[in-house]
Amino acid sequence: MALTDVRAPHEQSEGTRSQVLRWLKNVGDAVAADEPLLELETDKVTIEIAAPVAGVLREISKQAADPVTPSELLGRIEAGSVARPEAPVGPAAAGTGIVAGESRGRGLSPAVRRLIAEHGVDPAQLTGTGLGGRVTAADVLRHVEQTRASPPAAGGGPAPAPAVAPADAAAVRRVPHSPMRRRIAERMVESLLHTAPHVTTVFEADLAAVLAHRARHRHDYERRGTPLTLTAYFLAACVDAVRAVPEANARWTDAALEIHERLDIGVATALGERGLIVPVVRDVAALDLPALAAALADLTARARADRLTPADVRGGTFTVSNHGVSGSLIATPIVINQPQSAILGVGRLEKRAVVLSRDGEDVIAIRPRCYVSLTIDHRVMDGERANRFLAAFTARLEAWTD
């Protein structure tokens, strides 16, 4: 019996950890070449592993929630074999990652399984809001809360007894950490407390010229299917700023400062309850504004649809966090994404009364402005260099022309 190995990808994003999320096939199931076999979950993305050959899945070496290293054996397929008619149907073999009671082919992650067991929930009653209808931890908790709050149906049995907390204890809702949230926590603590001394400098940028340009061209971009976001302008302005201060696009080593010749900018993208991910726009200096807008639209859409690959989040040399889209004026310090040397923060755009000089006279005007901050690794550069970076960045935005 000739068996073909199914292995984890050889390459994965730096600093990530992988585990089996779920198997899509049971031992004994027939599989087609390139058909999805299982999903691996890293702290950044979910990866489908496809069958390398057609045949029958004969062995599963890694179960759901098991850690996985690059190139590690996951299972084996008997190439060219035919599935036995008596192969089990219904409840799957233990550990395959497929649970009895799953409806419409939805898979349940280990965290969701634990919540279902803790609360005694019937999986068939759950409505999944995750990718492809997948049930998330939030779906389980929402169902539990709705069940407790709903009155009993007419003629039905007694309503479930509400959970009563002890008189001396507040009610607690337990939400298990996802791999992404665990890794974010580890990286933030490591960067801020153990790796880089953080220093933040703040400027204010006038976006009148950018907004005027955007108003003139926005509909043209939309007709081409590309939204023209302010983040595209911010990335373009970073090119000027990095040219003025190359060490902002660098990494510290004990022997030397390594300055990257190419500018690959990670753009922090919020995923709601799932956390934060930083897909990377490659070679930003080589892209014009339409290309930047298109790259951002593609990465953002795939991030929110959970369709990023490990390559999409690997190898950034600088990071932009446009935290103002969620309402904040200033966020400081924004923790540096190691091993980078700096991270740019952009606050909420709002109209402000400012004093301007016109024909030698001071006048009060209403201008669209926002705070921009640069948090730096103080080993790499000093405050003067950070200020020079932001001066070049804001100058590019304030002098934007066609």
Radius of gyration: 26 Å
For the largest beta-sheet, the strand count, sense and barrel status come to: 7 strands, mixed
Task: Determine the N-to-C terminus distance.
Answer: 67 Å
Number of strands: 19
By CATH, the architecture of the largest domain is named 2-Layer Sandwich
Task: Describe the structure in your own words.
With 402 residues, the chain is α+β, with helices and mostly antiparallel strands. The chain folds into 3 domains: 1-98, RNA polymerase II/Efflux pump adaptor protein, barrel-sandwich hybrid domain (OB fold (Dihydrolipoamide Acetyltransferase, E2P)), CATH 2.40.50.100; 103-151, E3-binding domain (Dihydrolipoamide Transferase); 180-398, Chloramphenicol Acetyltransferase (2-Layer Sandwich). The protein is 26% helix and 25% strand. It has helices at residues 110-119, 137-149, 179-195, 208-223, 230-244, 289-304, 383-398; strands at residues 3-7, 18-23, 30-31, 36-42, 46-50, 55-60, 67-68, 73-79, 198-206, 250-252, 257-259, 265-267, 269-270, 276-277, 280-281, 318-321, 342-346, 350-358, 361-377. Helix 5 packs across helix 6. The protein starts with a strand and ends with a helix.
